[in-house]
Amino acid sequence: MNESHDPHLECWVRSAHNASTDFPIQNLPFGIFRRAESDDEPRVGVAIGDQILDVTTWLSEGLFDGAAAEAAARCALPTLNALMALGNEAISALRRGIVAILSTDGIGYENFKRLGDACLTPVSGAQLFAPVKVGDYTDFYASVYHATNVGSMFRPDNPLLPNYKFVPIGYHGRASSIVASGTEIIRPRGQTKVPTSEIPTFGPSRMLDYESELGFFVGRGNTLGAPIPIQRAAEHIFGFCLVNDWSARDIQAWEYQPLGPFLAKSFATSTSPWVVTAEAIEPFRAPAFARDAGDPAPLDYLSAPDDQKNGGIQLFLEVWMQSAIMRDQKVPAVRLSRTNFGSMYWTPAQMLAHHASNGCNLRPGDLLGSGTVSGKDKTERGCLLELTWRGAEPVTLPTGEQRRFLEDGDEVIMRGYCERDGFARIGFGDCRGIVSPAAG
Amino acid sequence: MNESHDPHLECWVRSAHNASTDFPIQNLPFGIFRRAESDDEPRVGVAIGDQILDVTTWLSEGLFDGAAAEAAARCALPTLNALMALGNEAISALRRGIVAILSTDGIGYENFKRLGDACLTPVSGAQLFAPVKVGDYTDFYASVYHATNVGSMFRPDNPLLPNYKFVPIGYHGRASSIVASGTEIIRPRGQTKVPTSEIPTFGPSRMLDYESELGFFVGRGNTLGAPIPIQRAAEHIFGFCLVNDWSARDIQAWEYQPLGPFLAKSFATSTSPWVVTAEAIEPFRAPAFARDAGDPAPLDYLSAPDDQKNGGIQLFLEVWMQSAIMRDQKVPAVRLSRTNFGSMYWTPAQMLAHHASNGCNLRPGDLLGSGTVSGKDKTERGCLLELTWRGAEPVTLPTGEQRRFLEDGDEVIMRGYCERDGFARIGFGDCRGIVSPAAG
């Protein structure tokens, strides 16, 4: 076990010991911030309790050395990409340096008393940015429950296609429209066709949906033409974030044949502000999906004993919603679903190895999404399409409002955390977005 | 008519007057080059005859002013992106400045005699690079003949889907694996399944193909959430290039349902080294596709009188091939097809307006591909899948070799040009790639 996983590790930032915090000293996720209303350049910060540690300040005070200092030197930039490119050993060294600063018997507290706000910024006084400049965004479809549910709506005769249990199905998404948590989501316009008409019409989507996903970022990349064997996939995964892959179901249904979803998804994708490192996730590793007896074994290039044993993650994702009326009436957000990443048929390592198996080059900061994380039960469905069964079974909010799909003013809040006996709970922070009316 | 379109315009670079050149003074395409075996930083050049004009040298000699100088100042960079972002008026000013330098009665020749190689580099002594750092790559499917041919092979009962004549079908491609012309193309490995087997296998693709496409680059971008009306689409198109969207048909057939092509395409996409500006293309504008009487009219957001009248392009694309044996025996490359961009059901403006219609933000340097350009006749089929009808009708090469799909050692050479009575012919230069054996 890595020192950073020790649940008894103590920290002089008191809020890091709150039972409800996503950011104990065992987490230390990376993000991009600046002090609100300052002229600071956005730069790398690390969440600790309700504070953000400014890596660059601690570096200039001489509190990092060796590999940690080298990594910290990449924290003056407005994205995590250069840090990610160093590879996970460098990240581990930087994390050790940060633990040394923040732990109760560490070297940091005396410096904090001297430096104050210059080295630690309250989250409440900070502006957070999209953490990564994403070169390419790829979205998978790894929940067999999601694939079966959606398939049965779009293709009742043929819900789960014959390739599903062999191929980690994925497609290229749109990188330009990846936005930071909190960015407003403008309802897209597009072509839709109702079954009773021969002719489509163009207008605001009436079936706007969220999709709750786990994202993972590429750290060290590979050269074009050089696949990444599954045994080495973990070396290329920097860390994880929450992803809301907003989807216009009516546009999707009309456009997606034969080349897949396009404008139904490309108007916006939100990510959480914090990227939780692969190292922080380690204590929550779990066996890969338990395939049914009749399921095929993964082909060799997708199969490694370690990945079968530890490639899954004990991780929970929740979706919460607050309508405009709820906000006005100060009715707190309500939870719509809670799912476990254990329901994913493919592991992150399998998705990454598959992606590079044809020689495709993955670059530092490329984002791979898991696809909607849905489980077996109705309470575990990670999008409204499934939760309301394409609108047939609306959700009732505490105000009595009903939802088949998202209305203008609805805020969707995604949360995620890893939890296991004997370890400190770690989380991702919220991934939020409010739907605003279609433009024009 | 713009001065740069005048077919009688003369140039002191003699090779620009060769009948066979792609690069008369009426063309002036932009690319990225450096002198071979030099330590120069790659920078923007303009092709003229068999020479490359180094914009930065002429700028430092004080030969550009005003808007042209401002644009020329962005030519010291290793990609065209910053130049593209200025918008097409700035590009037009820079082109006027270059015409002033290169025309026979212009200011350039005396300077050339003094500066020599510093301002003009022979193409034969230059290294060319991928001209643009592509943020997002989108591939359309705009040839109704290609869509019908491919559809009838993959879905004999349902070749052209009901959405085709309403929606400019497209999908997100992979940006990281876009490579410069001349880059070797490593045969991808992947999952394929033969119909006689229940189980797929993993190995080198046996159905490797090319796709001959026209690409176009976004110049000035749009803000997320702000669609681009079709009436303004032309302002956002910087220029055009050739695209070879290499495709592994056996991987594609097995993976593409339900989310579209993924690893079948993401191993490599080649582009021509030169980007021909929208302004140079203007004399070759042509009416949009002549729809059949029974075809639906485009929806309003895809319809503009100017685009119907001038949105097409009188442009020819050719595919040539030379096998390894042909190369050894010094047998010249043979032409496999010649197609006309007039066979495209959708215009570039319609594709771009559709892409942004949901608010998706397009950024300077984003690449949009037309999809395979195929016409009605067999000689006009822009990929081997169509040309050999999935291998049923092999092509015979001059050596007697047969091709169903590409073999290792085959070189594919794409050429494109615009030609019309009363105007100087302009071309794109070759887009080349040789297939090399699968790795490992």
Short description:
By secondary structure, the first copy, chain A, is an alpha+beta fold.
Task: Write up this protein.
Two copies of one chain form a homodimer. Chain A has helices at residues 55-60, 66-72, 81-85, 88-102, 108-115, 144-154, 249-255, 278-281, 305-310, 324-328, 348-356, 384-387, and strands spanning 30-35, 43-48, 51-54, 120-122, 126-129, 137-140, 170-172, 178-180, 185-186, 189-192, 201-204, 208-209, 212-218, 237-244, 247-248, 269-271, 276-277, 285-286, 312-313, 315-322, 334-340, 367-369, 395-396, 402-403, 411-418, 426-427, 431-436. Chain A is an alpha+beta fold and 440 residues long. Chain A has two domains: 3-129, Fumarylacetoacetase, N-terminal domain (SH3 type barrels), CATH 2.30.30.230; 137-436, Fumarylacetoacetate hydrolase, domain 2. In chain A, strand 25 (411-418) and strand 26 (426-427) form a beta hairpin. Chain A is globular. At the A-B interface, strand 7, strand 10 and helix 7 of A face strand 7, strand 10 and helix 7 of B.
Pick out its properties.
homodimer, about 450 residues, alpha+beta, SH3 type barrels, Fumarylacetoacetate hydrolase, domain 2, six-stranded mixed beta sheet, about 20% helix, globular
Present the secondary structure layout:
The structure is a homodimer of 440-residue chains.
Chain A: E1 30-35, E2 43-48, E3 51-54, H1 55-60, H2 66-72, H3 81-85, H4 88-102, H5 108-115, E4 120-122, E5 126-129, E6 137-140, H6 144-154, E7 170-172, E8 178-180, E9 185-186, E10 189-192, E11 201-204, E12 208-209, E13 212-218, E14 237-244, E15 247-248, H7 249-255, E16 269-271, E17 276-277, H8 278-281, E18 285-286, H9 305-310, E19 312-313, E20 315-322, H10 324-328, E21 334-340, H11 348-356, E22 367-369, H12 384-387, E23 395-396, E24 402-403, E25 411-418, E26 426-427, E27 431-436
Parallel strand pairs in A: 6-22, 8-16, 9-27
Antiparallel strand pairs in A: 1-2, 1-5, 2-3, 3-4, 6-7, 10-11, 12-15, 13-14, 13-22, 14-16, 14-17, 18-19, 20-21, 20-25, 23-24, 25-26, 25-27
Helix pairs in contact in A: 2-4
